[in-house]
Amino acid sequence: MGFYIFGEPTEKLRLKSFSASVRGAKAILKIEIETDDMSRLGFALQELGEVQKGQRVKPPRRLALPAPGGCDGG
Questions:
Q1: pLDDT 10s per residue in the chain (74 long)?
Q2: Please, which residues bridge with residue 8 across strands?
Q3: What are the residues facing 23 on neighbouring strands?
Q4: Largest CA distance in the chain
Q5: CA 29: distance to chain centroid?
Q6: pTM for this entry
Q7: 8 A C-beta contact, residue 32 and residue 17
Q8: Which residues neighbour 12 within 8 Å (Cβ) at sequence distance 6 or greater?
């Protein structure tokens, strides 16, 4: 999932600006991308949606293992 933006002068998706802000232990990175190619725009939006969807999936829960020495207490 994802897409790449290269530093080529012919790149259809162009990096227009970027910035970052930090609050406590978290940071927000803002990226602005410009294009005049609507098919590239659609592809980028679709891929970003897939990334967001994948990040919303909760990781599987770990199973608790029994304590060493068995469960008879002695």
A1: 577 888 899 999 999 999 999 999 999 999 999 999 999 999 999 999 999 999 898 888 888 777 787 666 55
A2: none
A3: 26
A4: 73
A5: 12
A6: 0.66
A7: yes
A8: 35, 36, 37, 40
